[in-house]
Queue: 4 jobs
Job 1
Amino acid sequence: MWSQLDDMRKDAQTRSISELFEADDARANGFCLQGEGLLFDYAKTSIDAAGRAALIKLAQDAGLAAKRAAMFAGEKINETEGRAVLHTALRNLEDEAVLVDGQDVLEGIKDTRTRMADLARAIRDGSFPGHGQRITDVVNIGIGGSDLGPLMAVMALAPFHDGPRCHFISNVDGADLTDTLAPLDPETTLVIVASKTFTTQETLLNARSALAWAGGEAALGRFVALSSAVDKCGEFGIPEERVFGFEDWVGGRYSVWGPIGFSLMLAIGPTDFEKFLSGGQAMDRHFQSATLQNNLPVMLALVGIWNQQVCGHPSRAVLPYEQRLARLPAYLQQLEMESNGKGVAMDGSPLSRVAGPLVWGEPGTNGQHAFYQLIHQGQQVVPCEFMVGARGHEPELSEHHKALIANCLAQSEALLKGRSEAEARAQLEAKGVSGSKLDQLSKHRVFTGNRPSTTLVYGQLTPFVLGQIVALYEHRVFVEGVIYGINSFDQWGVELGKELANGLVPAVSGGAQPGGANASTVMLLEHILEHSG
Ligand code: F6P
């Protein structure tokens, strides 16, 4: 399956991307695709026509089309947990049945969404709770997929906010709870406890402390739960009418489209929330119907595989030139690294190559003044994924948006072109530098260039476009998982640390011995207890 690409490795690693442009006048358009109002440019990578053909063949040989159909059809493709993978059903606004074990699941999803919308409207128009004061603030308590998705989306869609202010508590560190709740009034704050399993230690501890802050049991009337463990929400004391459930075939990191997105629905309203869903659904339809070469998620995935497997670059930077997408890199870290950071194939056999890229990033232009030094001159090449909107939301500040776009385009240009020593010398000579100083300084001003990047351009960051972008990345992760032959929908790797943390709680609380702990851990614990005051 991989041999054709493996054979290209040496050539691809030494190839000049600029020469690819010189050899092909049509490269800018030929290695770029447009669909659904998005433009994805991958011309500034070392992929040539033969490389692209080999990548597409790789996807075909991996059985992508059949596996994609199986996912949308509700087959149990999450084999290690015996579950279907149907987050796409949460954003399916059509009427055609989606079956799991022979049962249509769309009806239940719609009912829940209608109940969410009813409550959201009541909170937004002030008619909830029927007495007492109007809700001005909402606090979502959750972690991982029960935090990152809604937090990222709420931040991204700030221009569409016309509901209560949304806040997020995730960390078990009491500082998160304290600092978030400090400015809020418990009487006008709605608390959302978001946890798929309703067993997550951090979330339950935060929820209990938030309940105490809100006034104890009497305040449960201002609590909402989002979970697939509806019974456990009842045990916590949150009544059924304010529990929004979802099924176990929605993975935590894929759950923003359903109840876990309730804070987003409160912030932007049910109508705009549906636009977010329809953006996701439009990307689903594109993913299902476009040819592989014209398929945005497929090509995004294949470019990532080329950079990682053929060129040998283990990490990728996600660089949105959109301040409101500041949490997108963190969101994608969970999406990509929790999904594909695996060591074994679906059948349990060890993977023959390292799957799962290291994903990191920050919005531009801030990153330029922090880590871009390494990206431009460091000895490890980091493929960069730029994204930018053609239009901002601040027409009165259009100068800012022009500067943002200029910076975004300049970075990919600089990564590609670099600067030769001759050019560096000429610049310095023009400033009057000469002799040994010139020899020394010019070396520091050389940029090797030939560093790969892609650019995703969208019109404007609206609910619809955000839905498209999130679904685009979800499907990218799916395609990569299919090609590596792994299960992108479980996360056993997070369990061991959780088990050990639970085991250590009694020892940290003082008293109990940390049974079985390594000598270094025992030493650290003793030191901490000694200094805990
Ligand atoms: O620890 C990892 C994880 O299970 C994620 O997959 C999940 O998004 C997060 O914890 C939170 O889980 P829950 O929504 O069940 O509280």
Job 2
Amino acid sequence: MDYELAVIGAGPAGVAAGIYAVRAGISTIVLEEKLVGGQIVVSPWIENYPGYENISGMDLAEIFKNHLKKYIEPHELEPVKSLTKTEEGFGIVTSKGKYEVKAVVFATGAIYRTLGVPGERKFSGKGISYCATCDGFFFRDKKVAVVGGGNTAAVEALYLKNLGMDVHMIHRRDQLRAEMRYQEELEKKGVNIVYDTVVCCFNGDEKLESIELKDVNTEERRTENFDGAFVSIGLIPNTGLVRDLGVEVDDNGYIKVDDFQRTNVKGVYAAGDITGGARQIVTSCAQGAQAALASTEVLGKQYPF
Ligand code: NAP
């Protein structure tokens, strides 16, 4: 056995799982296909993680990484290719090696949902973005659309507005899903919210030039010029690896867990966005910690609580 526990994914849930596991005396490997931080790396700012009144996602990710590194060196840029059940536990094949472990904490988060309309793929990276922090800078003083009505869309719209852009939020319903606090801020900052409207297609030549929109009540279509579009319509859980193990997921594809973050498969735990629910940094951290501590039950270690 190479390690007792593998933590797959190093967003807030995976980082917390790694820290708690090592502190509980569990030999642990943390595997991350990209960089430590997960979704928070691309969050413009965070205001609701206790202890940090206002911090950029990038800065918080750095703090998380440094904290984790006090205990363990995370394997960044090492995606897991396969995960199989073995007699003793689980076999993991990554882009760089093979590992045998006794237990696994899944903290692989979720990926951006796409609209799936014509032109979206063609102009992705050529005017269409899924990350305001990453790409907002390129659209300074320009006219941009933010598609979506949730917290992410609101935060991104505010971030882009603060960069001096002419921001138009396109939302399919007559009410935003975003927290009231953000709704008030959007109004205060003068973000134009276009309700009851969907994107039909993205148009342009080499790069995005206009968006065809449809009023869902009147069915009326119109084409409006935009320099950029940020698609912020939520996430899809990253459950590809676990399904092969027979781990149960709910109707939305999120992994089902009990109060101790156990899945239906012995030795497999899940934490963070991949389990759905509140999908907040604070809840992900708590779940990651809980999952790591719960894994002691299959490692023959004393349950620490
Ligand atoms: P979300 O809350 O699921 O919202 C997704 C938004 O996109 C909804 O307004 C939804 O419309 C819309 N949408 C979904 N599919 C669409 C489609 N095919 N076409 C057009 N619109 C579509 O996702 P999120 O905003 O990414 O947030 C994810 C989680 O992170 C949430 O739990 C959120 O609270 C959390 N978060 C928190 C903060 C914070 O600072 N507190 C910041 C960012 C994210 P409907 O409303 O009509 O369903």
Job 3
Amino acid sequence: MRLSRRYQFCASHRLHLDSLSGDENRELFGKCNNPYGHGHDYILHVSVAGEVDPETGRIVDRDVLDRIVREDVLPRIDHKDMNAAVPEFRDLNPTTENLAKVIGDWLCAAFRNRLPAGPRLSAIRLEETGRNTFDLSME
Ligand code: NI
């Protein structure tokens, strides 16, 4: 059984590689290379997989899952300039592909600490815009 829960956050980024020239960066990333960055309203879906507890009839305590996301993930990125304020992006381009991997790492660590007996983190989905959705499977 899998359960997915949805969360929202806002963050800004600028796609830029120091290893490339200004022209090459503009060519590669277009408007996303604008010096002052731009923001997105991201939607994060967190999916967990596990057995249905015979007593509660559920696979995860929603409060525990919410606490993991609200305490271990969202404060690190919500309303942040990711290039400047998120250490993981000091040397990593904050594309949404990379953001999904970073969030996946944070969630894996949080699940190990807070839900050692399960359920397990199954996948995350990150919506950047209405047109761009990124799926990362953790299994
Ligand atoms: Ni963008």
Job 4
Amino acid sequence: MPIDDVAAQDRPRHDWTRAEVEALFDLPFAELVFQAAAVHRRHFDPAEVQMSQLLSVKTGGCAENCGYCSQSAHFDTGLKAEKLMPASDVIAAAMSAKAGGAQRFCMGAAWRDLKDRDLPKVAAMISGVKALGLETCATLGMLTADQAKALKAAGLDYYNHNLDTSPEYYPTVVSTRTYDDRLDTLAHVRAAGMSTCCGGIVGMGETRSDRAGLLQALANLPEHPDSLPINDLMPVVGTPLGNSQPVDGLEFVRTIAVARILCPRSIVRLSAGREHMSREQQALCFLAGANSIFIGGKLLTTANPEVDEDQALLADLGMRPMTMANEATA
Ligand code: SAM
Ligand code: DTB
Ligand code: SF4
């Protein structure tokens, strides 16, 4: 194939129709994974995996009613609410995450929106973590345009704000905010010059068409998310989705594969849910184009594989940490 055609085949598209995305989902499994793996190899070294680590810097008591979340004040999940952590404790946790192999440190707060009074403390955490040589990410709920600029100025590289599911299924999962609220915050994050981390959750009782709708919405954003996390629901007792039927493992792999095809240059994260996935399912996800994971034994409030387990998995698969931009010339 002429070089121009090779380049053109993965030109970012922002005009995907639902029918096109559903048609990808409907491909025979091996054909879909083969196509996704081919896209993956054109843009990334398939042996490389980016590693992020999460810390809940403010836990529980959240005013939103996201039906999947352990931290919503609307549900009795038995989680103990905690105040915003001191910046020094967050920086100490980031230091040990770095020692365990993390490349990006993601600070999560159970807030509906960031309050200006908390900005100085959050900014101190961000600049302290950045000074350790880690990439910084935060997920703090809705932001104003000015708050996004302030976080960028403090050294924030990524902001996580998920669309979670299709626009039409969203109101059945959360009713205290709208899809448009999410899109507004994402626009502020892009305008401030930060990278976006934006994805969703499968296994919330949604249909395949909803999964297609989520990926369509992500791909049709003005810019593809820089990081695209696909979470498999961690069912939390006491939440409305605590008894959800788990999504089939092959369907989860399909979701990763379609994300990779729609957003060829995004880092696609095999996010929450690895705790209940086999090594073989995770290997299929990597083959289908996932190239990022959360490491450390805990996500925000729920379990994640231990570091030694992941080291063994990656060694057995012949995979290694992704070369980061700031290391490329070293
Ligand atoms: N409060 C902020 C917000 O909602 O944007 C940040 C924290 S929130 C916990 C970040 C994301 O974690 C959610 O958007 C959702 O996609 C994911 N998440 C939360 N609970 C989850 C669960 N039980 N299983 C899988 N993913 C979950
Ligand atoms: C994302 O998409 N998943 C992460 C991160 N972004 C913030 C959060 C997963 C949370 C899983 C449930 C918990 O541990 O509370
Ligand atoms: Fe609050 Fe975020 Fe949990 Fe929703 S997902 S209840 S906004 S912490």
